[in-house]
Amino acid sequence: MKVLTRGTVTVDVEQCKGCDMCIPACPPGVLSMSREVNGRGYRFPILHPGCTGCQACQQICPDWVFEVFRYEEPIELEVPES
Amino acid sequence: MKVLTRGTVTVDVEQCKGCDMCIPACPPGVLSMSREVNGRGYRFPILHPGCTGCQACQQICPDWVFEVFRYEEPIELEVPES
Amino acid sequence: MTDAIVERPIVPTEHRPDRAAHEVGHKVAPLLLTEQSHFCPGCGEPIAARTILENLVELGVAGQSVAVLGIGCYTAMASSFDIDTVQALHGRAPSVATGVKRMKPDSIVFTLQGDGDMVNEGLQEVLHTAARGESVTAILLNNGVFGETGGHMTATSVLGQRTKNTIDGRDAEYHGYPIRIADLIAQLDGVAYVARGSVHSPGAIAKTKKMVHKALQMQVERKGFSFVEILTMCPTGWFIPTIEGPQYMDDTLGQVHTMGELEVRG
Amino acid sequence: MTDAIVERPIVPTEHRPDRAAHEVGHKVAPLLLTEQSHFCPGCGEPIAARTILENLVELGVAGQSVAVLGIGCYTAMASSFDIDTVQALHGRAPSVATGVKRMKPDSIVFTLQGDGDMVNEGLQEVLHTAARGESVTAILLNNGVFGETGGHMTATSVLGQRTKNTIDGRDAEYHGYPIRIADLIAQLDGVAYVARGSVHSPGAIAKTKKMVHKALQMQVERKGFSFVEILTMCPTGWFIPTIEGPQYMDDTLGQVHTMGELEVRG
Amino acid sequence: MTRRLMEGSEAIVEAAIAAGCRFFTGYPMTPFTEVLEHFSKRLPEVGGVCINAESELEAIGMTWGAAATGARAATGSVGQGLSLMQESIAEMALARVPIVVFNMSRGQSDYFQATRGGGHGDYRTIVLAPMDVSEAVELTQLAFHLADRWRNPVLVYGDFLIAHTSEAIDVQPIDFGPLPDKDWGIDGSTSGTGRSRMITSIGIGKAHSPTSGIIGHFEGIAPHLAAMQAAEARVETGFVDDADHIVVAFGTAGKFVRYVVGKMRADGVRVGYVRPITLWPFPEDAVARASEGKRAVMVFENSAGQLIDDVKISVLGRAPVIPIGGISTDASGFGVGDMYDAEVIRGRIEAVLAGQEVTS
Amino acid sequence: MTRRLMEGSEAIVEAAIAAGCRFFTGYPMTPFTEVLEHFSKRLPEVGGVCINAESELEAIGMTWGAAATGARAATGSVGQGLSLMQESIAEMALARVPIVVFNMSRGQSDYFQATRGGGHGDYRTIVLAPMDVSEAVELTQLAFHLADRWRNPVLVYGDFLIAHTSEAIDVQPIDFGPLPDKDWGIDGSTSGTGRSRMITSIGIGKAHSPTSGIIGHFEGIAPHLAAMQAAEARVETGFVDDADHIVVAFGTAGKFVRYVVGKMRADGVRVGYVRPITLWPFPEDAVARASEGKRAVMVFENSAGQLIDDVKISVLGRAPVIPIGGISTDASGFGVGDMYDAEVIRGRIEAVLAGQEVTS
Amino acid sequence: MEREIGLTGIGGQGIQLAAQSLARGAAHEGRNVSLFGVYSGSMRGGRTDSSVVVADGPIDAPPLVSHLWSVIAMHDAFWLPTVEGRGVQAKLRTGSVVLRNSSTFDTDLDRDRFRVFDVAATEIALGLGNEMMGSMVMVGAFAGITGLLEVDSAIEGMRQSVPSHRKQHIERNEAAIRAGFDAVADRVLAAPAWSDDNEEVRA
Amino acid sequence: MEREIGLTGIGGQGIQLAAQSLARGAAHEGRNVSLFGVYSGSMRGGRTDSSVVVADGPIDAPPLVSHLWSVIAMHDAFWLPTVEGRGVQAKLRTGSVVLRNSSTFDTDLDRDRFRVFDVAATEIALGLGNEMMGSMVMVGAFAGITGLLEVDSAIEGMRQSVPSHRKQHIERNEAAIRAGFDAVADRVLAAPAWSDDNEEVRA
Ligand SMILES: Cc1ncc(C[n+]2csc(CCOP(=O)(O)OP(=O)(O)O)c2C)c(N)n1
Ligand SMILES: Cc1ncc(C[n+]2csc(CCOP(=O)(O)OP(=O)(O)O)c2C)c(N)n1
Ligand code: SF4
Ligand code: SF4
Ligand code: SF4
Ligand code: SF4
Ligand code: SF4
Ligand code: SF4
Ligand SMILES: [Mg+2]
Ligand SMILES: [Mg+2]
């Protein structure tokens, strides 16, 4: 299955404090929490295809973890049927 | 002319501080200020016929000057035509 | 006062009438230890005090009442009230009253404070106490000035009011706006009763007395915080002749701090 | 968050995209001297701070802005804000801001205070400053607890709220009622703008940002005192997992301290 | 109750309750917060009242009201909060309202405020300075007793170390002997009887029981202070008689000094210590006696130099008075600095013995 | 300006304005009220700001903000009001915010509060104690200078007598010499430049200009205090060299003592006086020198005994220190008691000369 | 030569304005003056005192004087020792000049010891239409009896002392001062301030 | 014999609960105990330290000890001297026992001077479903490596220490302590607390 992906983010893993708040805040639900921890012992978000570049994660993140980008042209990313 | 007089008051002259407030407060307007002063140098109220015993003077007086009485039977007091 | 009246004969007033008559009301307010009153001529504060004292007696709670006084001209009442009294510091009466009430829940505790005391120095105290729903009654004597210090602007002085340090009148731009404290308190959830009365006329005094009655009644019934603001004349601090006090009050303070009941918990 | 998502492929997020893309918004809020934030995981305070900092830049007033901070967790922002700062004592920020503004009328002065700071310790300060119509902007970060000291009840904690010293929930009878501070301030004549926002969801954040904008704009136009209350999550002081913060806020504080504009001077 | 590992703040609360304290209120501030937390849990359990005051100003006001009824009532704070209470504390001393105030201070630099009264006017509070949790349990109870004995506020000067140290404690009520009746307590019951009562700091009395007036009221302060001063000074001394040098220190610093002096004595060094337990009244006589013929009197305190004033006033030139403390705090400002270290302290004492200068 | 009969409170205001004070705020309380009244009239006339603060707590906060901009700013109060300000005064000392505070005190029993700081922690305010209206005019101006020189709050310790005495006065600005730039003042102009500034009492700095941290901040207090102490002690002495006895007194009491001692000298009695002008730093050296070889050092103060502590600390046993003052007030509590009487004071001094006990 | 004048009364009697009128009036004549007033802001009938020292040379004495050459006594509330203080009379010496407002001052005075002058100040003021201006009447009477200053100087002193928000009272104050002066026309310089035989005033 | 144990970390790492668990656990075994914790109410990543003194006789030393026999090191933020203090390491002696949370403690340690034991506490906790329970893991590991107290006593100490509003966490805390104990199964009593050769620990 192809997922339309209008944007993407960078995640500053070491800044993250693992609060999980970005996860439900992401409208298309394309963030999940890692299984590993960062240097301070916190889990952090992982991005999956389908980001819209909406900035919701950036706005709610208390720790300045996300930089958000919008693609000039949306792309399609492949995901397995769920 | 006779004036119907339902009540009367006593005036504790030495308690009075001459504020004048009882004068306009008296509904039938039967109080006036003295020309002399009391021991502290204040003028004080004088009663004329026509008191109704309404207590207005007593209520507004800050210095507990008045005691108010109502006659069992109203009386008529003589005043000159004005 | 018509000039005519002074022409009329004088009724003797030194002694009780010799005719059959009954006394109505007391000369001196009840619960006083002395007839002396150390207030300026024309002051509204003793008039307001009478409304409280009479109510304590009429409600039958005088023998369990505790007064907590603020600091202002009314502080002079501390010695004359025959009421157990805690003299609080300027602004702090509501907290002191709280301490008393919590330790003696059966007492009827009221504060007596001025606008300087309550709305300036102790604004926070009264609001927190009200929000806490503390079962005490706060009584404000609002004359729109610090009477005691000589007639300076308070947080309730109305725009244009001439005070010792706003000699050209209170100017919103420079001195800000008056606080209508009863309106604020009425917004709080913990309050059972809020009203504003005045003592500038016999009619207003009668209404005010009823307000104080209701406020104390709320405390008896443990319904929460109760509050009565009473506008009082301060001819000294207003720099006007005593006789003009009532009218001045009506024209200035009375226009902003309007009378009436603002909150009555059922 | 559906479990399904974790099954999907992972998009690399270490670097800027290699495809043609433009950055939207900044990673770090503007006017910060450091990316480090000394707040607990899931704290709402830095989120609220971003709404202020972005507005200062967007209004073009950053270079004349002065921050006056209260004492609470947000005090940690004093070092990181690239803004001339006066650190006030607990509760005293509005008066300090007044002093600054009166001496530097061209500066844009805002306070940043918590509910403990503003509605407990300094309730009187903010009300007097508002009534004075002081041309400053006060911003309240309301999390219904003293975060800094470990999650104790404040004057805004809602009934039933579990805090460190109301462990069975805030009980009106014993602990009193919460104060809805924005509602109180909106009653005062000196105020130009009063609103209440929140940071518990991206939508709420966007609305809050607009409120802060309007408040600062009022100051630029010298229309009087302006005020924005921002509800912020404090998972630490609420004793809940960080992820539950936004929902908890909506269910508790958000029900009593409801969002919206309460006063807008034309 | 049997011995239980308790933090100092909890132990203080248990001691207060054992002493009959039934009213407490306060506003959070580390490490006073912990005292407040324990009171807010425990007082309702024993039929008392604990109010989460909205601020320190309101806390002290509520305490005033509660104490005015005759109840044993207390409050407290730290640093800024204590300063805010000074107006009321000063006036409660004048109004003769007995309360107990816990200053869970950060360091020892509130000594002046505690002993000279940060408020206005002529007044003093009795100040009890425990050195550790066990002593805090005793002195907390004594505080309530002395407050009632003298109708005067009493301050317990604790600190972060006492608040945050846990020891195994068994709190038992202590009987300090009989006290005068609290017939001055206000409850409304004498209202309207012609014998109504009044609690006031401003020296006026009810019209039916005229007081000595404001002048008399103020003039009466000096004898009251003198009486407390004569009766209540408390001190612990150790090894002073045959010492060449003595060290004066109070509270937690006193605990360290006592420990260090003990070790030095064990090593044969002729040093002694004086530990004031009441900071006011200051044990002037004990310090004076201990200083007689000494080569130096050292003062170890965690401040820029406050206790040293009282030491100088006591020693009055009998021996040189040498400060060996200084301001020492941790990064949180809790006043638990690196100077609180037995080896550091020993080093400073030894430097003085060796005639070297001590720089803190 | 030419000489004009002015009440002390008015003269103080004129002096403050001459010194460049452009911000004042306060809350009425006799006799500070009069100072506030004059400021509220005069400051707008010179382009300054005077706010009728809603309370003393708010007054001191506003003063903090105004002074933080670098403006010369002042406030003040009396008694209770001063006590309420102690939290802020203590912290302004830490934050190095230069302000001037007028304590138009009732009597002299705020000496401890003034000199030891009624607030928490290690700090001191410079305290200037004029003896009369003329000296108040000079010391008020000096106060603003010293505040800026040291970035420290300065207290002017006046009283009811100074406030309410009128003399013919001509207020002229005094030049006390150059001062450091106030480049620390806050006005928003460095915001967003990476060089933004901060005024804080809590020892943290902007991230771009790390400070010494909280520990360093606190440890820095002691040298700051020592520097002020070394530089600023001021005193007036009279007839001390060949005196057998000296009398120490400050402020209005000092004016009386100076007058009485002058009269006694005229009568051939070998008595001298020391009048501390700064109460902190206390002129320890001058008092020590003056006490050398004297038969007694008398202390005349209107309090239960506060100044006497500093006298003892200075004299250090060189001579007996004898209190001849006491609490003396009028019925309003304004601190203007019957003891302020040249004949009464002379009587007390003579009693000591005659070896009698003085009871106040 | 130094002359110490005390004024004593109760709040609302205008004591402070009277004292200022005397002080500014004397200063207007080139005298050295020191003035001290005990008052608080309000007028609730409490003590209000003032003392004025007028001298022809510099004044080095503190403003609270041990003795009074003269006193203007509006009310006797604080005349004798009470719980509130030792009273004004204690500061008088034999021969001190006492101007007594006979309308409101009741206490007996030792007329052998003091030079007592009765002035019905309140009544005179009442006659002028404002019974509250008794102390202005006394100022005029004092100028007349003692000549410490000219009555015109006293009026000038009053003018300089009335606060800006009370300027409308200047006229009637002037009338009261003049009325007081006139009232003692029969006693002019009965106790002259600047004559040497005052040195008889003694403890 | 007295054993001083330091615990150091940053807010939120559960340092205080760990220290209390050790202290109450040791008290449960009849030892004399003194415990001191540096913490403030909030969890904003600041310093949080604790020290526990456990002794078989009465403790007369003040609670702030000059030296540490052992330290449980959760994070290295306050390990070395900084502007914020001289750091925890300064209190160690040669031979002191250091339990290092290898997941979050980065600084190099002098393994010749100290007896260092690495425990991946945060990772172990993560495996149990809550990465925030690393210090509980450390408590178990400490019991195993030093035998200062039995692991069951540590668990009992934890039970007594959890505040009433957090009782629901007791189970998983216990699991974490046991997991820590199990994780050092290969190093049991590798640094025995109550053996005499500890007296080698020296400055
Ligand atoms: C802390 C403090 N500040 C100032 C004062 C001085 N003071 C005494 S009464 C008063 C004003 C009282 O005003 P208000 O309460 O309105 O009473 P009123 O005199 O008008 O009846 C002031 C400011 C004080 N006693 N305490
Ligand atoms: C006068 C005073 N009292 C108490 C404190 C302790 N204190 C520091 S922060 C704080 C609570 C702050 O609460 P809030 O303003 O709501 O901020 P939050 O931590 O929730 O962000 C308290 C009580 C203080 N610093 N000063
Ligand atoms: S930008 Fe929007 S869609 Fe993309 S990850 Fe963030 S919240 Fe999700
Ligand atoms: S919101 Fe920020 S800090 Fe929280 S988990 Fe997401 S990225 Fe991490
Ligand atoms: S009782 Fe009524 S009618 Fe009679 S005098 Fe008084 S006010 Fe007038
Ligand atoms: S109201 Fe009372 S005090 Fe006033 S004039 Fe009338 S009687 Fe006298
Ligand atoms: S000053 Fe005003 S309030 Fe005070 S007694 Fe006089 S009139 Fe009444
Ligand atoms: S305690 Fe609450 S307000 Fe403070 S940093 Fe943590 S989450 Fe934020
Ligand atoms: Mg008023
Ligand atoms: Mg908060």
Describe the SSE topology.
The complex is a heterooctamer, with two copies of chain A (82 residues), two copies of chain C (266 residues), two copies of chain E (360 residues) and two copies of chain G (203 residues).
Chain C: E1 21-24, H1 45-58, E2 65-69, H2 77-80, E3 84-87, H3 93-103, E4 108-114, H4 115-121, H5 123-131, E5 137-142, E6 145-146, E7 152-153, H6 172-175, H7 181-186, E8 191-198, H8 202-220, E9 225-231, H9 235-238, H10 245-251, H11 253-256, E10 260-264
Parallel strand pairs in C: 2-3, 2-4, 4-5, 5-9, 8-9
Antiparallel strand pairs in C: 6-7, 8-10
Chain E: E1 4-7, H1 8-18, E2 23-26, H2 32-45, E3 49-52, H3 56-68, E4 73-77, H4 79-84, H5 86-95, E5 100-105, H6 111-117, E6 126-128, H7 133-150, E7 154-159, H8 160-164, E8 165-169, E9 198-199, H9 213-219, H10 221-232, E10 235-238, E11 245-248, H11 251-266, E12 271-276, E13 278-280, H12 284-291, E14 296-299, H13 307-315, E15 321-323, H14 342-353
Parallel strand pairs in E: 2-3, 2-4, 4-5, 5-7, 6-7, 11-12, 11-14, 14-15
Antiparallel strand pairs in E: 1-8, 6-13, 10-12
Chain G: E1 2-10, H1 15-28, E2 32-38, E3 47-55, E4 68-73, E5 92-101, E6 115-119, H2 121-127, H3 134-146, H4 151-161, H5 170-183
Helix pairs in contact in G: 1-3, 1-4, 2-3, 3-5, 4-5
The complex binds thiamine diphosphate (2 copies), iron/sulfur cluster (6 copies) and magnesium ion (2 copies).
Classify the fold: give the CATH topology of the largest domain in chain E.
Rossmann fold
Instruction: Give the % helix of chain E.
Output: 40-55%
What is the strand tally of chain E?
Answer: 15
Q: Oligomeric form of this entry? A: heterooctamer
- The percentage of residues in β strands of chain E lies in 15-25%
Instruction: Specify the biggest β-sheet of chain E.
Output: 7 strands, mixed
Describe the structure.
The complex is a heterooctamer, with 2 copies of chain A (82 residues), 2 copies of chain C (266 residues), 2 copies of chain E (360 residues) and 2 copies of chain G (203 residues). Chain A is mainly β and 82 residues long. Chain A has one domain (2-78): Alpha-Beta Plaits. Chain A has 2 helices and 4 strands, in the order βαββαβ. Chain A has helices at residues 22-25, 56-60, and strands spanning 2-11, 31-33, 45-47, 66-78. The longest helix of chain A has 5 residues, at 56-60. Chain C has helices at 45-58, 77-80, 93-103, 115-121, 123-131, 172-175, 181-186, 202-220, 235-238, 245-251, 253-256, and strands at 21-24, 65-69, 84-87, 108-114, 137-142, 145-146, 152-153, 191-198, 225-231, 260-264. In chain C, strands 3-2-4-5-9-8-10 form a 7-stranded mixed β-sheet, sandwiched between helices. A two-stranded antiparallel sheet of chain C has the order 6-7. The N and C termini of chain C lie far apart (44 Å). Chain E folds into 2 domains: 4-169, Rossmann fold (3-Layer(aba) Sandwich); 234-353, Rossmann fold (3-Layer(aba) Sandwich), CATH 3.40.50.920. Chain E is 41% helix and 18% strand. In chain E, helix 2 (32-45) links the parallel strand 2 and strand 3 (49-52). In chain E, helix 1 (8-18) packs parallel to helix 7 and helix 11 (251-266) crosses helix 14 (342-353). The longest helix of chain E is centred in the middle third of the chain and has 18 residues, at 133-150. The mean pLDDT of chain E is 95. Chain G has one domain (2-196): Pyruvate-ferredoxin oxidoreductase, PFOR, domain III (Pyruvate-ferredoxin Oxidoreductase, domain 3), CATH 3.40.920. Chain G has helices spanning 15-28, 121-127, 134-146, 151-161, 170-183; strands spanning 2-10, 32-38, 47-55, 68-73, 92-101, 115-119. Chain G is globular. The two termini of chain G are 17 Å apart. Chains in contact: A-D, A-H, B-C, B-G, C-D, C-E, C-F, C-G, D-E, D-F, D-H, E-F, E-G, E-H, F-G, F-H. Chains E and F meet through helix 4, helix 5, helix 6, helix 9 and helix 10 of E and helix 4, helix 5, helix 6, helix 9 and helix 10 of F.
